[in-house]
Specification:
The protein has 205 residues and is α/β, with parallel strands linked by helices. The chain has 9 helices and 5 strands. It has one domain (9-203): Nucleotidyltransferase, domain 5, CATH 3.30.420.10. The chain has helices at residues 56-62, 66-70, 75-86, 96-109, 121-128, 137-143, 155-174, 184-192, 198-203, and strands spanning 9-16, 27-36, 39-47, 90-93, 118-120. The chain has a 5-stranded mixed β-sheet, with helices on both faces. The radius of gyration is 17 Å and the shape is globular. It binds one DNA strand of 23 nucleotides through residues 13-25, 28, 57-58, 61-62, 93-99, 101-102, 120, 122-123, 126, 134-137, 153, 194-195.
Length: 205
DNA sequence: TGCCAGGCCCTCTTTAGGGCCTT
């Protein structure tokens, strides 16, 4: 069975100075992998200098220090490169609303835009892994016994783990339906379906 | 200096409140 929605996808993750670009927070690292037919075929990773110091909390949380950022290229330079990398591919992130806010904010600063659609691995996991203890990325990786060395909270590592989780979810969904492929539109529909209607939706495929 | 958000989703709901996720 094919998994067409993975034919060309960018799975991305930002590390940032905080939670809200509307409150002045900036991206400090972008990591992404390109998935084609279920395989990682390309990677992107870069630190970026946000032009402000990051808090001790962020240094501890990510391991990214002010010293490291002082030697990094500025955000606009890195985001220009990343915009070229992702093109108009569809996009996936864990808690996509968070990464989309920062992607939109950073690209807006350099007047670059994209036409891809976002899908959220968190929303999908809440539908198909309703018995998981919680739906944090690290917890889901452990729940599905996906090999990991535990180095979470760096952008490329988290995007690689999200990509593995994504492929695992597509495989699990493909086992629940009779259709020949798991389409991107089905994934987006699933992520918006009330939990108690998930089985009905899958059985209709 | 210290602090900050927003979308989703559940329920003891919908004229609301609070937990889960992301950094």
């Amino acid at each position: 069975m094919t998994q067409s929605c993975a034919d060309s996808l960018i799975v991305l993750d930002f590390e940032t100075t905080g939670l809200s670009p509307d409150m002045g927070d900036r991206a400090i690292e972008i990591g992404a992998v390109r998935l084609e037919k279920g395989l990682v075929v390309d990677r992107f990773q870069a630190l970026m200098n946000p032009g402000k110091r990051v808090s001790g909390f962020i240094e501890n949380y990510t391991g990214i220090t002010n010293r490291m950022l002082s030697q990094a290229a500025p955000c606009d330079e890195v985001m220009e490169q990343f915009a070229n990398f992702m093109g108009d591919s569809n996009l996936v992130a864990h808690n996509a609303s968070f990464d989309k806010r920062f992607l939109d904010a950073e690209l807006g600063r350099i007047a670059r835009y994209y036409n891809g659609n976002f899908a959220c691995s968190l929303l999908l996991a809440r539908r198909i892994y309703q018995q998981a203890p919680n739906h944090k990325l690290g917890s889901l990786i452990a729940y599905k016994n996906i090999p990991s060395d535990g180095g979470f909270h760096r952008a490329l590592f988290d995007s690689e783990m999200t990509a593995k989780l994504w492929m695992t979810m597509l495989n699990d969904i493909s086992l629940m339906i009779t259709a020949q492929e798991v389409s991107f539109s089905l994934i987006q529909k699933l992520a918006k379906t009330p939990k108690n209607n998930v089985q009905k939706l899958l059985q209709a495929q």
